[in-house]
Design brief:
Elements lengths: L9 H15 L22 E5 L1 H5 L2 H10 L2 E4 L5 H4 L9 H12 L3 E8 L6 H7 L3 H18 L6 E6 L13 H6 L2 H13 L4 E6 L6 H17 L5 E4 L2 E3 L4 H12 L4 E10 L2 E2 L6 E2 L7 H21 L5 E6 L8 H6 L16 H11 L6
Parallel strand pairs: 1-2, 1-11, 2-3, 3-4, 4-5, 5-6, 6-8, 7-8, 8-11
Antiparallel strand pairs: 9-10
Helix pairs in contact: 1-11, 1-12, 7-9, 11-12, 12-14
């Protein structure tokens, strides 16, 4: 991905410069013992991870790390439409119910991901909805009402609509939902979710909005319009699938603009990669075939800086939390989706904490000026 030079207001540049100076002035990150207190215990806001529930509960070592470090859970795919409703009138609640049971047992928050996403729409819905938009509109309403209503008071928040804008720029993505229902499907999805559970925190979730200012501004315009129209939107999810060369000042600028909406801010799918790709399932470019000590340390600094930016820029009352996507290189989606090697998470293939883990932890522990 090519990063375009952006222009930022002088006051933002000064603010960012002070933050970056504070980050780089900190002591170097040194690995500590693995018996150290987990991430969740060092944080004032929830620390989450994406999980495959079957893999998690059948791997004792993985589960021990998840329990010790995290107090929020997001399903990678088990709560998407293709898993919940694989065939007409055949709801499959088993995995979602298992996630709720696990979360309750281990005192963790459940975050719902997601309600409407073009990539997780079952083929049977596309086939039927393409022929009858009135049926599709009613289906979406009934699906959201039944799904969100089933877990009312149990799921803390939802990614109501996921990735409704193009990968780059500010245009709406011409998805199955958009092509058949127009852009109003987004607002309606939020209305239906709120009707089903008025207490749930409702998010719009997308990628690249931390580095593509045009896309960010389009999302923020949608949020502004929703607020003006009374659409119940409560938060913005920054997926934060970032690369090592994503400038910290660009991320900081995006967080500051999003926080100005007053909505909850969720870093919802965090990982940090070294290699490059074009955001589509077309493979990546392996600029790095192996990881060095220097690369690991640089990644640790990047994780630390990201956590510090979130804590210092987003007001405390708007900090919904940080969720990593997964938390081990072994289980990361990057390898399979882009067919490339990388090391994007805080634990390695052997479930050992990387310098990135300690960078994340230090970002949580460091004292910052309170807002």
């Amino acid at each position: 991905m090519i990063f375009k030079k952006q222009s930022y207001p002088k006051i933002i540049i000064i603010h960012i410069a002070l933050i970056v100076f504070a980050f780089t002035a900190c002591k170097s990150l040194k690995p500590k013992t693995t018996a150290e207190v987990g991430l969740k215990n060092a944080s004032e806001f929830p620390i989450g991870t994406a999980i495959n529930i079957n893999k998690l509960i059948n791997d004792k070592a993985l589960m021990a790390l998840q329990i010790s470090n995290f107090n929020s859970i997001t399903a990678t795919s088990d709560m998407k439409m293709q898993s919940i409703l694989p065939a007409e009138n055949q709801f499959n609640w088993k995995k979602a119910d298992t996630i709720l049971y696990y979360a309750k047992k281990h005192k963790q928050r459940v975050f719902g991901h997601n309600l409407i996403w073009h990539s997780s729409t079952p083929k049977w819905v596309e086939e039927k909805g393409s022929k009858d938009s009135l049926w599709l509109a009613e289906f979406m309403k009934e699906y959201i009402h039944k799904y969100v209503g089933r877990y009312k008071g149990k799921v803390a928040g939802w990614d109501v609509v996921n990735e409704a804008f193009e990968s780059a720029g500010g245009e709406y993505r011409k998805t199955f939902w958009y092509n058949n229902l127009g852009k109003d499907y987004i607002a309606n999805a939020f209305r239906y979710a709120h009707e089903a559970d008025p207490a749930a925190v409702l998010f719009y979730n997308d990628f690249n909005i931390e580095r593509d200012t045009t896309k960010l501004n389009a999302v923020l315009k949608m949020v502004k319009d929703f607020k003006k129209e009374g659409v119940p939107i409560h938060g913005i999810g920054f997926q934060m699938h970032i690369r090592m060369d994503t400038p910290d000042e660009v991320i900081a600028y995006a967080l500051k603009k999003a926080a100005a909406t007053g909505l909850q801010i969720h870093l919802s799918e965090v990982d940090i990669i070294f290699n490059s790709h074009n955001d589509e399932r077309l493979g990546g470019i392996e600029n790095y075939s192996s990881i060095t000590t220097e690369m690991k340390q640089a990644q640790a600094e990047k994780y630390k800086n990201l956590v510090l930016m979130y804590r210092s820029i987003v007001p405390k009352k708007q900090q919904f939390g940080i969720t990593v996507w997964d938390f081990t290189d072994r289980d990361s989606w990057i390898k399979g989706f882009f067919n490339m090697k990388d090391w994007p998470t805080i634990y390695d293939d052997e479930l050992k904490p990387k310098p990135a883990y300690y960078g994340f932890l230090e970002g949580l522990k460091m004292k910052i000026e309170k807002k």
